[in-house]
Design goal:
2 copies of one chain form a homodimer. In chain A, the strands form 9 sheets. An 8-stranded parallel β-barrel of chain A has the order 1-2-3-13-16-17-18-19. The first copy, chain A, has a 7-stranded mixed beta sheet with strand order 21-20-22-23-30-29-28. In chain A, strands 4, 5, 7, 8, 9 and 12 form a 6-stranded antiparallel beta sheet that branches. Chain A folds into 4 domains: about 1-45 and about 335-440, TIM Barrel; about 55-210 and about 220-310, Immunoglobulin-like (Sandwich); about 445-670, Rossmann fold (3-Layer(aba) Sandwich), CATH 3.40.50; about 670-735, Sandwich (Immunoglobulin-like). Chain A contains 17 helices and 35 strands. In chain A, helix 5 (about 190-205) packs parallel to helix 8 (about 280-305). Chain A is of the alpha/beta class. Chains A and B meet through strand 5, strand 15, helix 15 and helix 16 of A and strand 5, strand 15, helix 15 and helix 16 of B. Bound molecules: magnesium ion (3 copies). One magnesium ion binds near residues 572 and 573 of chain A. Chains A, B: This is 1,3-beta-galactosyl-N-acetylhexosamine phosphorylase. Chains A, B: It comes from Tessaracoccus lubricantis.
Chain lengths: ~725, ~725
């Protein structure tokens, strides 16, 4: 294979002889350093692009130490403490926090702090409490608390240690390494810091003519990451804006939005506006406000980079808050590319679908680090797992580039691994080459995921921190993961979009998640206009797929507010008096490809789900609870699934459920869907070809049928039988 | 054994020779007939009391047919139906109902019916809808519904078939039996019906000088029991008042309470005020109002019975609504006794604890019916199971009498069974004889179950219909079942009691149940005075035991409103960003008697429970979720258990948890608690004896230690080892 390019490799010193051969073999056209490695002098002669990492908001400790007022801040909440029978209540606000990370900011605390009675939700007047102590030992005393009410203190605090550097420092145990300092960040809102950021970047660019691509890691505000008194993670939200707050910003906000912000707007009862919370109006305003600020300042930094003829690449992580890659403003920053870590099909699409950038790049696993690249380690298996998940996403919407990180000198000690990487790079490039730069054809069914966040959290739902497994989310994340490799034009839309008539743009809408979350919708469903929009959509021919606890909020005699459409509702323990006679009728189009529909894995399930009446077809019943059901309502259809962890079978179930919900099941057998759910196909009708992927790690044989025109109607039906090697991908001709 | 009495047997014709021997052998001093049997002529010479069943509100079909206006009514709700995009909406209100049971009552329907928009909760003005049809085919049309809103009709309906007789008729398939009519009831509110009820009873008593005890089955209003269009049970609530409603009553209510009742007050969004619902003020008023009416009329009937020198016995079931045996008015009826079916320890206590009656009687299982008394049937096993559960309850609070029902001629064909019944009767009487008429001593710990119902639902919590198993309740019913045989002075108290200072009367309070139910409390916990009363109680030294989802309602940053006291809260999926590091510390006083604390059975559990901080001791953790935890707060203590199905081990766990919560664990080993949780003891210090029960069906050996003064402090500690036969009970001397 001679195709080259689209691959970034980490290189290091001491491998000068091998580097040209490795780069050529893998077709790498860009190189980067990694934490703890430096680019070799030979780099300039390799004929490849050079990436180098840049930190705008930390790393220059002298500046940070000289400008303590420029440190970033965040809002924190004390523990919940009950007031005694008589007398005042003292709260040690730092209890449970890490004193090397957090220092209460006592500047104008009567304006910026709040003491709240959490038994009633009422704010204690500022004259009702006092603050004693300084530095990291601070006590708040409520003079006359209501006996046995529970109180908390919302306080603004300085971040006295950068979160990511702290994480690395603690994880790598740098305590005795005198070359390491505890890095302090600085806030782009601070005028001196901002001027410093710009001049520093300019100087840095000037000093590095050899660098082609500035890899920003990242910009200003870190996602929320707070440590506990033992130096362990206490609160993490990869989507959190808690660290973007400071008095200057809050005052500017008030000027612009016409209302005052409160500490509680950020503390949010201790939930800190986690992305699982139905977002408040104020929080959405704050995101918009911060994004405008961040994007305009990012643009200024990108402009500097461009002045020097370099490209600007953003790492999707760390200090990425306010960039909002799926927001309206991101393209205006002029950023050239986005690079992010690929941990799954969904995170791959999260990168590759970002609109308005010149290129996207996925950093693949495994990282060339000694935890995997050691005697007994199996980097090959990790590479395969990562690639199989990424490939199906890339086949739907290609990343422009892929790359690796870590120490190349380690990786080359595993020749099998390097050979596999070579194959992966070739396979990746073939998707660009054979697909002729086009996306594969989508099924003629327009699909939307409906939640409180909509487009802003495209591919970013149900996640706490990047790709971490939680018992409470995997049954919903599986839906996103499945869709990341399925042939649908998928949009993420918000409840506001639904109310504003956007449902008309779709054939099938999914509402996925646990009750009370932003993804199911919680209190949003108390607004009848939302339920009416969905009910109209289905009655007039649309398809609704509910997974978990869709449309759930207890009101007016129902828990699922669209129980009449979905055909199911959840028993909370207050309607046990109603007799139910559920009957399983398992035969259905949507389970037709499963070996054993009885074994459908609904993950954690959704509790006790019942059919509201006999018009609901129950496909799977476990312990009298409905796991899977369908229903026709008006001219439309609905499907209910109790949970959908990612698996080949579940992806197929969802694939079919979407066809059925759209009333398009008659087309299914002519749409190039392999009989084996472990095989997927991306169809490129303009090229007259299709990319067949065996997602299994063993060989398989599958049949598939379709027409030369792809998923359109024209042409004769061709039926093929394909024998595929383990993990094989293959280009086939459609005709 | 010579002791006689306290036993009622069903007898029948054709056994004259055997009867005296059987009665003597079992010590029976009363006889009754059963459905389908008649007392033999010999009865008067048997020297025993004679019971006969009486139905005040049905059974006289001529009267019922002549007085259709006297038929009882109920409130029902139609299906939920969505309005179309344009035009009117027609609702077939009888869809899903049984036309042989239900006939819409169109009298003054503009006053008594309601059409409700269930999407908003708003009532449609009466001019906005019309009714077409008559009899059992009735359609309501909403002229201008809001498109895609969901509507229901609340309608008043005649009960055209008595619920219990319908149940028997359908169950026994009497359709082709021409001797059977479909019995219609009559309502005591109806003046003509009421006069008829009194005169009928008087005539009946006059005609039956041989009857000593009139067994009322029961009085006026049946518990809610509605059938579906296939003649199967559609809605059942053993505590439901839906059938006590009629316009006369509602008008009288309005006169007295000063406000108008609405159909929705009874329909309750389709939940029909199930006892699992947190009761509304209106529903509680209605219960009070109805109970005053029922009890005053019951008194008039009882007075008639007494006039004839007979006793009045009430069957606890069927038409028992408004008698409220644990209400203030029950004793004023003059009823002599209550008889009910014993299906468990808790249902036994539900009967035996009824205050203000001369005697209580338990009808034991198995019924002498052919379903059990057949070749291959095992009536002996059923008798043992029933007796073991009843015995531990009887040992705490004796029933005054026990009895059986059914066909004696069947039972005598099983000599082993009859021999066992003889033993059971003797064992039962020994509790009265040896206990010298006293209750056994309770532990010096005053215990309360706290819920929305309080005393009125003493032993009646978490039940849909008598002793039926539901997945959603068994994990809570186990608490009640355990307590029914444990040595505590237990009271059921309401949230109002707690707010009114009643907690001071107790050492340990339990809150048990699922979120949103009347038993956990749901929205009641939004009233801060309730949480404050409990928090004060614990801080000042009380013990709180929470089981399942105690104090749960999402507000002010907590789901369990007493999470600070219980030390745990529930993850709903909105606080996943908070890191948790739960550590199991299984060693604890409360699990000390369990072979393997790791195997504690929490039944259905309560979802994802987490410790709020490190001050909570987690005794058992499953999949990172807390099943069992303890915490000290202020001067008090709390215990959390995720669920507690009844078992010997769980009863012991609860026993110890109560001691620990009360701070009395140091006393435990001197309080006559057997080392084997399968053995229980009732201590009668005045008699100097204790009643030891082996609840196991196999032999066991157990140690036990205590003092001659029982559970008081005095006297030397005696330690015994007891070897017990399967199911054995034994009286031992304390000294
Ligand atoms: Mg629940
Ligand atoms: Mg009886
Ligand atoms: Mg949930």
């Amino acid at each position: 294979m001679n195709a080259k390019g689209r691959v970034t490799l980490p290189i290091e010193q001491g491998m000068d002889d091998q580097l040209p051969g490795i780069l050529s073999r893998l077709g790498a056209d860009a190189v980067r350093n990694s934490d703890g490695t430096w680019l070799p002098e030979i780099t300039a002669q390799l004929g490849v692009k050079v990436y180098e990492t840049y930190f705008p908001a930390r790393g220059q400790q002298d500046f940070a130490l000289a400008n303590p007022d420029a440190r970033p801040r965040f809002y924190l909440m004390s523990e919940r403490v009950a007031a005694p029978a008589t007398g005042p209540l003292s709260i040690d606000i730092m209890k449970g926090y890490y004193k090397l990370q957090v220092e209460p900011d006592q500047g104008n605390l009567r304006r910026w702090w709040e003491v709240i009675d959490r038994t009633t939700g009422e704010v204690v007047p500022v004259d009702g409490w006092t603050v004693e102590g300084e530095g990291v030992d601070v006590t708040v005393t409520v003079a006359e608390p209501v006996p046995f009410h529970v109180y908390t203190v919302n306080f603004l605090a300085w971040q006295v240690w950068d979160s990511t550097q702290m994480y690395n420092y603690i994880t790598n145990n740098w305590w005795d390494d005198e070359s390491r300092v505890r890095e302090i960040g600085y806030d782009a809102r601070h005028p001196v810091a901002w001027e410093f950021m710009k001049s520093s970047l300019r100087a840095w660019c000037e000093e590095r003519p050899e660098v082609d691509v500035v890899r920003f890691t990242t910009f200003f505000y870190h996602f929320t990451l707070v440590f506990n008194d033992l130096g362990k993670e206490k609160y993490v939200d990869w989507f959190g804006y808690s660290t973007s707050v400071n008095p200057l910003a809050m005052e500017a906000f008030e000027q612009e939005y016409g209302y005052q912000l409160r500490a509680e707007d950020f503390v949010d009862q201790g939930f800190y506006n986690s992305s699982f919370r139905v977002p408040s109006k104020v929080f959405r305003d704050w995101i918009e406000f911060t994004t405008r600020f961040v994007c305009s300042r990012v643009k200024e930094l990108v402009d500097i980079v461009h002045e020097f003829g370099k490209e600007a690449l953003m790492f999707l992580g760390d200090n990425w808050m306010g960039t909002e890659p799926y927001g309206e403003l991101f393209a205006s920053t002029g950023i050239d590319g986005v690079v992010g870590s690929v941990g799954s099909s969904a995170t791959c699409r999260m990168i590759s679908d970002i609109p308005g950038v010149k290129f996207t790049e996925g950093r693949f696993l495994p990282h060339f680090f000694p935890d995997v690249f050691r005697p007994g380690g199996d980097p090959l298996a990790e590479a395969n797992e990562s690639w199989l998940l990424a490939r199906r996403a890339i086949a739907r919407k290609p990343l422009d580039r892929i790359g690796y990180g870590g120490y190349l000198s380690l990786a080359v000690q595993f020749p099998d691994f390097m050979a596999r990487v070579e194959q992966i790079c070739d396979e990746f490039r073939s998707i660009h080459d054979e697909g002729q730069g086009r996306r594969p054809q989508d099924a003629p069914i327009r699909v939307a995921i409906l939640n409180a966040w909509g487009r802003k959290r495209t591919w970013m739902t149900h996640m706490v921190a990047h790709a971490l497994w939680y018992k409470q989310i995997y049954s919903y994340l599986g839906v996103i993961e499945a869709l990341a490799g399925l042939p649908f034009d998928l949009k993420f839309i918000s409840f506001d979009d639904a109310r504003d008539g956007r449902l008309a743009d779709f054939d099938v809408v999914l509402n996925v998640g646990a009750a009370e979350t932003a993804f199911s919708g919680g209190s949003e469903w108390l607004d009848e206009s939302l339920a009416v929009a969905l009910r109209r959509f289905v009655h007039e021919g649309g398809g609704l797929i509910g997974i978990g606890e869709p449309t759930a909020v207890l009101a007016n005699g129902a828990y699922f507010q669209l129980s009449d459409v979905l055909g199911v509702d959840k028993e909370l323990g207050i309607s046990l008096s109603t007799d139910r006679y559920p009957v399983e009728q398992p035969q259905h189009f949507i389970t037709a490809d499963l070996d054993d529909a009885a074994k459908v894995d609904v993950g954690e399930g959704a509790g006790d789900i019942f059919a509201v009446n006999d018009d609901t077809q129950i496909l799977r019943l476990t312990d009298k609870s409905v796991d899977l059901a369908t229903r026709e309502t008006g001219n439309g259809r609905a499907v209910y699934v109790a949970g959908l962890p990612y698996s080949f079978d579940n992806a197929r179930l969802l694939h079919r459920a979407i066809y059925w919900a759209a009333g398009r099941e008659a087309d299914f057998d002519a749409h190039w869907v392999p009989s084996d759910p472990g095989v997927e196909i991306a169809v490129f009708p303009e090229a007259g070809k299709a990319f067949v992927m065996n997602n299994r790690t063993d060989a398989t044989s599958t049949t598939v049928s379709g027409r030369a025109k792809g998923l359109a109607d024209g042409g004769d039906l061709t039926a093929l039988t394909l024998d595929l090697e383990p993990m094989e991908s293959r280009w086939i001709d459609l005709a």
